[in-house]
Amino acid sequence: MNDKESGVIAFFRKNEVIQRFADVVGNKALANSYATSVIIEARNNSDLLECSVDSLYSSAIKAAMLRLQVGATLGEAWLIPRNNKKKINGRDVWQKEANFQIGWKGWYRMAMRTQLYRYINISPMKMGSMIEFNPITGAASVRNCDKIY
User: Fold this and answer.
1) How many domains does the chain have?
2) pLDDT tens for residues 95-130?
3) Do 87 and 143 have their domain in common?
4) Residues 123, 105 share a domain
5) Are residue 134 and residue 106 in the same domain, yes or no?
6) Which of 57, 97, 127, 136 is the most exposed place for a label (fewest CB within 10 A)?
7) Which residue segment(s) compose the domain that 28 sits in?
8) How do residues 51-109 score in pLDDT, each as one tens digit?
């Protein structure tokens, strides 16, 4: 374990951080789950260890507010390390920061939670596929077509 990894672990194990997650999600067990998921993601992606702890924290809090689980295997939300240019003392400096990104499963989950949708169709689309929509039932189907437009 290197210094950056131990710094991330120490930060996300602080009582104040866990309490902030608990304030957002409603209970301490779920708060620990969010903090642990950030630690696991940082261990699995060394680029996340290069990011500022503040950016990891703010991205994780966004996931918690939306009730989305962070993790590549779940596909609901990701912490993406990106280089961002900032001006410090009039000079351009590149800093690696964690950015929150919602995956398609996260969008689906949030839409279903609203209970405003009867049908949400999710299927892979191939080149040349045609979507047929029934306006009466709201059902959609995919028909493969040999013709490419």
Assistant:
1) 2
2) 899 999 999 999 999 999 999 987 787 777 777 777
3) no
4) no
5) no
6) 136
7) 3-117
8) 999 999 999 999 999 999 998 888 899 999 999 888 888 888 888 999 999 999 999 99
